[in-house]
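Folds abound. Consider this:
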Amino acid sequence: MNLLAQLKLYTKVVADTGDFGSIEAYNPVDATTNPSLIYTASQDPKYASLVDDAVAYGKTQLTGKSGQLAKAMDKLAVNFGLKILEIVPGRVSTEVDARLSFDTEASVIKARELIALYETSGISRERILIKLASTWEGIKAAEILEKEGIHCNLTLLFSFAQAVACAEAGVRLISPFVGRILDWYKKERGVAEIPAHEDPGVLSVKKIFNYYKKFGYKTQVMGASFRNIGEIVELAGCELLTIAPKFLKELEKTEGVLVRKLSEEAARQSEIEKITIDEKTFRWMINEDAMATEKLAEGIRNFTKDLEKLEEQMAKRL
C-alpha cells in the first residue's frame, strides 16, 4: 500500500484546497478553504460561474455598495463550500473575515450569516465548520457559536495556550499550523532543515493531541500547513490532517510502511500536567512565545491581504 492509503487507516484525510478536481482525485473525508485558496481558485475560468452567482447575489442586496460587496464575498465563500460538499462526504470549513479576529461580537454575527446561507441552500450546519483565528476573541466567539450548534474550526493556532483555551471553550476542532512553526524555527536557528521527528511543529501537535486525550477533551486536532510529507508521516494517528494536493500526490506515489505515531492509549500514559487558562494567562503565555505571537499576527495579515485582493476583484464586478 502507498503511504496515503495507509495514512487513511489511522487518520481522516482532509483536502486543503479550493480546487474541486484535486478533491475528487484523492477522496478526502472533509475539505478546508481560506481566503488565500479561494482567491487563487477564483482566478480560474473553470469557477467563473461561482463568482458570477456571488456578484448577482450581492447586487440583489439593498445595503449600498459596501454592503453588497460584503454579501457577495460571503456568498462566494459559501458557493465554493457548496461545490466542495457535492464531492466530500463530510464537512467543509468556511472562514470568517480575518479582519474580525479581535471582535467577538462581529465574528459571531458573521458566522451566523454564513450558516444561514448554507441552510438556505439546504445544507445542515453539521456539515459546516466555521473557521476563526485562534485569538482570545475568536475563541470566545467559538464558545458562543458552539452552544448554538454552530461548530468551529480554530485556525492560525501555533501554541499550547491557544489549544488549551480552545478545548476549555468546547471548540469542535483546531488546526495547528505545523509548517509555519517549522518556518519560524528554521529561520531562528539559521538552519536549512530540521528532521521530521524533531520538527517543532510536529512536536507541538503531538503535545496537544496527548493533552486532549489524556484529559478527555472532545476537541478534535487537525494538523495543517505542512512543508513536507515527513511531517505528515510523523503525525499518523492524529484525528485529522488537512493536506495540500501536492503532498497528497506525493504520499500516493510513495511506497513503504507507515507506522502509527499517535494514539489515545499512548496519550493516556503521557506525563503532562493539566492547566487552566483565563484571559490574563492566555495573553501572557502568547506574549512569552515569540513564535506564536509573530506567526498569529502574520497569518491574520496575510489572510487579510488575500481577502482584500478578492474584494477588489469583486468590487469591479459590482
Q: What stands out?
A: Strands lie at 12-16, 30-32, 92-95, 128-133, 152-157, 173-176, 220-223, 240-243. The radius of gyration is 19 Å.
